[in-house]
Amino acid sequence: MLGCGTMGHSIALNAAWAGLSVKMQGISDSDLEQGWTNMLKKLKVMLNNGILSDSEAAQIQENIKMTTSVEEAVREATFVIEAVPEDISIKKELFKHLDALCAPDVILASNTSGLSPTEIASETEHPERTVVTHFWNPAHLIPLVEIVRGEETSDEAVERSFHLLQQMKKKPIEVKREVPGFVGNRLQYALFREAQYLLEEGIASKEDIDDAVTYGIGRRLPVSGPFMTADMGGLDVFSAISDYLFQHLSSAEESLPTLKKLVAEQKLGDKTGEGYYKWDEAFSKEYNQKREAELIRFLKKDLGIQ
Q1: Looking at 10, 134, 140, 161, which residue is catalytic?
Q2: Which family does it belong to (predicted)?
Q3: Residue 238 in 3-state DSSP?
Q4: Annotated catalytic residue within 63, 154, 185, 250
Q5: Mean pLDDT, the chain, as a whole number?
Q6: Residue 143 belongs to domain spanning
Q7: pLDDT tens digits, residue range 80-120?
Q8: Quick one: 63 and 209 in the same domain?
Q9: 188-240 pLDDT, tens per residue?
């Protein structure tokens, strides 16, 4: 596991939970210490919610070794996942280095949320073994992982990615052809674009737009995605509504003015204390814990834990 930040330490936790031996790499001892501390916090929450036993938590820690050396991290590895910053030049250089370090049968996977796997592998000698495995944050609680093919990604790389992720009790899907945003983010940002438009036009408040999702379509989405929902509602109805509604939906090609203004003012949300909402310490703690509790509830259901 290359990288021990927000995604890296969570992915390492997931792999170690599946009984795999993991080497987690960070750029410095302090970087690794922070990643380890963050992982221990997640283990504590999982313990407190009955997802893990004390012995399982101890075994997870035993399964993870830490290093600041990329060379050490990938020595004897059969599958490498990177979660370094989302910068194409950094990833291309890293994969070129990994390609030289690792035997040709080692799978090289990127956790990028939207960068092209073809471009990431463009300077390697064995591009067929490069694939994207896009985990969703928080990686230890959300089952979805998108497996994205590059132009030269082999069937074997995809199959081995599926096998590993299923071993980690994830829900992998295959993105058969790379496209900006892959699948999940395209769906997420289509919704976010329309939400921005409704707010910009004064059609509803941000609170009511959020509630329309949380207490409306959000209640169905854990059971039925868009195509299943359409089948259940009747395709004649969904086709007729599509015919008249699509022409009225936002077709904005960039973020809308309110969002641009907030970003320009460095009002970036939870991490700066203000965004669309005011994020004081109490509000931040309340909503982060609320989201985590709901994700844990779903995870326990997936795992058959009462």
Answers
A1: 134
A2: Belongs to the 3-hydroxyacyl-CoA dehydrogenase family.
A3: helix
A4: 185
A5: 97
A6: 6-181
A7: 999 999 999 999 999 999 999 999 999 999 999 999 999 99
A8: no
A9: 999 999 999 999 999 999 999 999 999 999 999 999 999 999 999 999 999 99
CA 137, CA 265: separation in Å to the nearest integer? 26
Per the annotation, the verdict on 123 as an active-site residue is no
Whether 261 is in a domain gets the answer no
In the residue annotation, 10 being an active-site residue is answered as no
The answer to whether residues 120 and 88 touch, using CB atoms and an 8 Å cutoff, is yes
Catalytic one among 38, 49, 63, 113?
113
Looking at the structure, tell me whether residues 30 and 158 fall in a common domain.
Answer: yes
Which of 9, 116, 146, 178 is labelled catalytic?
Answer: 146
The answer as to whether 1 is a domain residue is no
Helix boundaries (H) for 49-183: 54-63, 70-74, 88-101, 117-120, 155-167
Question: Is 134 labeled as catalytic in the residue annotation?
Answer: yes
Residue 306: predicted pLDDT: 80
Q: Is residue 11 part of a domain?
A: yes
